[in-house]
Amino acid sequence: MINARAADACVHSLVDWWRLAGVECTIAEEPVNWLRPKLPAATQAPGSAPAADAYPDDLDAFTAYLANEPTLPESGWPGQRVLPAGTKDATAMLIVDAPDSMAQAQNAHFNAETSRLIERMMAAAGLSMDQCYLASLSLSAPPPGAVDTSCAELLAKRMRHHIKLVRPKAVLLLGDKASRILLTINEDQTDKYLHFVNHLDGKVPAAAIIHPRLMMEQPAAKAVAWRSLRRLAKVWA
User: Fold this and answer.
1) Which one of 145, 165, 179, 225 has the fewest beta carbons within 10 angstroms of its own beta carbon?
2) How far lies 233's CA from each of 21, 87, 121, 128, 211, in Å?
3) Sheet strands (E) in 42-131
4) What residues contact 171, with CB distance under 8 A and at least 6 apart?
5) For residue 177, what are the CA distances in angstroms to 83, 142, 149, 218?
6) pLDDT band at 27 (very low <50, low <70, confident <90, very high)
7) DSSP for residue 96
8) What are the strands of the beta sheet with 170-174, ordered from one edge?
9) What is the spatial distance between Cα 32 and Cα 37, in angstroms, rounded to a whole number?
10) How far apart are CA 168 and CA 2, in angstroms?
């Protein structure tokens, strides 16, 4: 026969076991598994959008953020990040959707031939490249299908903050992908009107032209692009 002391010890041992398992309160609706391993602290997933005030509010700091931030969607894409080039308060900010994949390896947005075409276009509009700021929506060429709706929204939000920091007099969008992400217009209107790109502090005049790479293949498209650029040039004339 078990004596009282041994029985009491058994009861306490059993109660301690159930308490350890989480059954320690008679009015609890759900059991608590105290043996479950503690989950690691949540971290921001690559490609998730930060809060509006999470981006650095200084252009140099923002550029460093673009170069080093591990949560950007580009972290999961091949190739190096191509950073923007230019200075604050540039007359014109040129925005392309992404660096050309071949030029990206040379830390450039465009190959030499396309770069010369852009330089000649801007010179004809009265600007040297020193008066221009060049940036891309994505810092590297995305793999096929990588820029879905949520990613495009993130890139647009980031670029609007970028425009706010640069404070250009005008924005020139290079290619239909950049214009679709930053403008709300019909495709057949892109070369007929002067547009505006909204950013956090207001809006800036903008024009959208065909990607310069395609101009090399479609010379007739240069005339259409020149009409849009000439219209935009009135902003800084």
Assistant:
1) 145
2) 73, 19, 11, 13, 18
3) 92-96
4) 92, 93, 94, 95, 163, 182, 197, 204, 205, 206, 207
5) 19, 13, 12, 18
6) very low
7) E
8) 132-136, 92-96, 170-174, 202-209, 195-199
9) 12
10) 89
**54-98 tens-digit pLDDT:** 899 999 999 999 999 999 999 999 999 999 999 999 999 999 999
Query: How far is Cα 40 from Cα 140, in angstroms, rounded to an integer?
Result: 31
In terms of DSSP bridges, do strands 132-136 and 170-174 run parallel, antiparallel, or are they unpaired?
A: unpaired
Residue 26 makes CB contacts below 8 A (sequence gap 6+) with none
- pLDDT average, residue stretch 125-149: 94
Reply yes or no on whether the pLDDT at 144 is more than 70.
yes
List the alpha helices (DSSP H) in 107-236.
Answer: 112-124, 149-166, 176-182, 212-217, 221-233
> What distances in angstroms separate CA 165 from CA 36, 45, 89, 150, one per listed residue?
47, 25, 8, 23
Q: What is the pTM of this model?
A: 0.76
